[in-house]
Write a structure and sequence with these properties.
With 294 residues, the chain is α/β, with parallel strands linked by helices. It has nine helices and eight strands. It has a four-stranded mixed sheet with strand order 1-2-3-4. Strands 5-6-8-7 form a four-stranded antiparallel sheet, covered by helices on one side. Strand 5 and strand 6 form a beta hairpin.
Length: 294
C-alpha cells in the first residue's frame, strides 16, 4: 500500500484516495483470465492474444520514449480471485519482456514457498525472473519480505556508505531467524510436495461442492490456493452472498477471504501442514455455510 505499490496495483479502492499523488507512468498489460477475458478472443486463443497485446503496448511505449524498466506479474493472481493463466503464457510474457529490454519481476508474495505445489510458482513454467518478491509465509508468522535478485541489480542501491533505500526494522533479527527456521521446515517436512499432493483432492471436493450449490459458478486453483466464485456464469457476481458465506464459516471456525473485483470469490489458502480430518471438517463447514447463505 506504499506509493510505489499503489502505482502497480489495479484495485481502485486502494488507489483512488491517493490517485493525485501517484506518478502516471505505469502501463497495464492484459492478464489472460479465461473466465473473465479482458477483451474478445477465442477461449483457446486468449493467452496468445494477451501476449500480442502486451508486445504491442510495450513497443508503443518505447516509441513514445517511455521504454519500460520492468514488468511486474503475479504467476497466479491472488486477491483478484485466484486467476490461473493458461499454460505457456508466463513463458511467453518473459520472452516479450526480455525483447523489450526490461526486467521481469515475479510477485510471489502469496504464491511462493510452496503454496501452489512448487517452491516458487514460476517453476511451473520454467521461468527465471530477474527479481523475485517473497513475503507472507517467509517469516513464519513474523513480518518479513524480501526481494531476490542477482548481485549486479542490487549495485544500484550502493551509495558508497549508507544504504540508499532502507527502513528502521529492515532485516529484523528475530524475523530473519524465524525465516531461516521456516525454510528449514519447508524442506525437511516436504511441504512443497505435500501441497502438490493435496491438489487432486481439493479440486475434486470443491467441484463436488460447486455441483451441490448452484450459486457456485466456478472453481479454479492450483496446489493449495483455490478460488470458489459465487455468481457469474450468466448471473451477476454475488459479493453479498460471498460475504455471508465467509461470516458463516467464521462462526464455525474456518477462515476464508472474499477476493476478486466484485469480492465474490471465496479464497481458500489452507496451511501446508493440513491434515485429512481438518480438511474434512473445513469442507463440511463450507458446505453448511453455502447452504445457509441462500
Amino acid at each position: 500500500l506504499s506509493y510505489g505499490a499503489l502505482r502497480a496495483t489495479w484495485r481502485p479502492a486502494f488507489r483512488d484516495p491517493f490517485r493525485a499523488a501517484l506518478a502516471p507512468e505505469t502501463l497495464r498489460l492484459p492478464y489472460p483470465d479465461t473466465d473473465h477475458p479482458p477483451f474478445d478472443a477465442p477461449h483457446d486463443g486468449l493467452a496468445a492474444a494477451c501476449l500480442e497485446e502486451a508486445r504491442r503496448r510495450l513497443r508503443d511505449a518505447a516509441e513514445l520514449g517511455r521504454a519500460p524498466g520492468a514488468v511486474i506479474v503475479e504467476p497466479v493472481q491472488g486477491r483478484e480471485g485466484v486467476v490461473v493463466p493458461p499454460a505457456g503464457w508466463l513463458r511467453g510474457l518473459a520472452a516479450i519482456v526480455r525483447e523489450a529490454g526490461a526486467l521481469l519481476v515475479a510477485d510471489e508474495v502469496l504464491t511462493g514457498l510452496g503454496r501452489t505445489g512448487w517452491l516458487f510458482d514460476v517453476e511451473r513454467e520454467g521461468v527465471v525472473p530477474d527479481v523475485l518478491l517473497v513475503g507472507k509465509a517467509l517469516g513464519g508468522g513474523l513480518p518479513l519480505a524480501a526481494a531476490i535478485a542477482a548481485r549486479p541489480l542490487f549495485d544500484v542501491w550502493d551509495g558508497g556508505g549508507e544504504a540508499l533505500h532502507t527502513a528502521t526494522f529492515l532485516a529484523h533479527p528475530l524475523a530473519c531467524a524465524a525465516a531461516l527456521a521456516t525454510l528449514d521446515a519447508i524442506e525437511s517436512e516436504r511441504l512443497v510436495e505435500r501441497a502438490r499432493g493435496w491438489e487432486p483432492r481439493l479440486r475434486a471436493d470443491l467441484h463436488a461442492l460447486a455441483a451441490a450449490h448452484p450459486p457456485v459458478a466456478r472453481v479454479r486453483g492450483v496446489g493449495m490456493l483455490w478460488g470458489v466464485e459465487i455468481g457469474g456464469a450468466g448471473a451477476r457476481p454475488d459479493g453479498e452472498r460471498a460475504r455471508r458465506v465467509v461470516e458463516q464459516c467464521l462462526e464455525r471456525g474456518v477462515l476464508l477471504l472474499c477476493g476478486g473485483p466484485s469480492a465474490n470469490v471465496l479464497e481458500l489458502t489452507p496451511p501446508l501442514v493440513l491434515a485429512g480430518d481438518e480438511w474434512a471438517e473445513a469442507s463440511a463447514v463450507l458446505d453448511a455455510a453455502l447452504a445457509a447463505s441462500r
